[in-house]
Fold:
Amino acid sequence: MIDSFRKYGRRAVVVLLCELLVLLPALGAPPPAAKQPAGPAVPAPVEPLPLQAYLVKSYLTLFKISPELHFTDAQYKAEEARLTKNQASCVHKFKEKVDAYNKRISADRRKLHGRKLVTRSERHALRCKIQDLRFERGEDRLLADHGVPIAYQNMKAKLELIQNWPTDYKQIQQELADGAYRNRRWGDVKDIGFRVIAKGQSKDIRLGEETIQQLKQEGMLPPEVKNKAIVSYVRRVAMRVASHSDLHVPLHLYVVNSNVINAFSFPGGFVFVNLGLLRAVDNESELAGVIGHEIGHIVARHGHKLMERATLASIFEQAGEVAAMVMTGGIASLGEYYALQYGFEGLGMMLNLKLLGVSREYELQADQLGIQYAWNAGYDPTGFIRFFDKMATREGYVNGVAWFYDHPPFYQRMVDAMREIDFLPKKSQYIVQTSAFLQMKKELKPVVAMGKKKAKNRPSLIPHAKGCMAPRKLHYKPGDNIDNLCGTASAPGLAKK
Ligand SMILES: [Zn+2]
Structure:
């Protein structure tokens, strides 16, 4: 495995750094699709609620209502302190659970190596038990190391938004009034299609093709979805966005059979959309927003640039490190969890996470370009924020782990996106939902069910005992309130949205 990563690490990096969203499958029911694009200028009735109650509201709602909210500095400080304290106690709680699992696993391992077990079935049962315990430990470690901190980071970002957005918004209005907004990076949106964001897109085509080829050979790309109706629908949406973008190479779009909520791109015009993403989007403008982001990566030649920046040695080192963690069993929780669930994709994701630090700026750039392209194609540009929003608020600390990990600070990403939308010339109408999208959703159900069956037989990186019962379902549920999970005190009536 290490060797294969040495060999293919270089290519894999190009791919993985182009990922936008890496999330686990959404399990909860989708919220109703929004009909109208949101603008921050629309005043909404202000509910007389304590500050804490606003932290479960969506970002878009907070963009709208924050100018009407008036809390004191002392209240902000107290709320921040409360969040910090609850986070610490919750992380501690899950760390203790991890310790308890470690003890149980060690005890069972000793039994396995002892001489008392005689029959094969006894050994098998013990192996299965250890496997289950490892899985359960992985969940708690995931929560302690990533999930819980992300949930609180998310709430702190919302706190920051309530506090700072009114000032930021005034600044935006000022820039709109005096025309300064036109001088922002890529502010020449009327020339989309004729701009050069990064010279030499076509030089990336071969690189993209080779990367895809090699990853396919390694079994690291999920298989393509065959359903023609789904594929041609997604292709149409992508073509619409691409033809209103700065893409100067032919677009190749693939729909692949993976339940991870994700889309990713390769240099030279190759966009991959996972089935998981199609399940998670609630309307066409959200899908267009995500595809726009991926096209943004290609247009700005991020994959190519990252390869220039990261030395080969450093990439090999990191790839080797990840592979070594997997091989020795001393895996970081996230990788272990994902590897158990998603096999090779899990490892890819780890690699992605390790390297994401260098791509923060690129994410912000792709966000900006993606919003411009979706808007230029006639879509409601808030579709992208809505999708983010939904992931953060509903899936956030549970399923959004990889996505939020080491990405640009959430507040900054949301505010930058909203600012770009405010700077775009307003249109009288935007596409939000289409009948073709709803038709695609109908087609999706049987395809997803079939995909799940096949996924069971896919390889996993973790050597595992065969013939065990499937590990039990995870404890946590998407959309569940963090206070319920942590058992932290919440003011009455605040637990639910
Ligand atoms: Zn991205």
About this structure: Residues 84 and 144 are 14 Å apart (CA to CA).
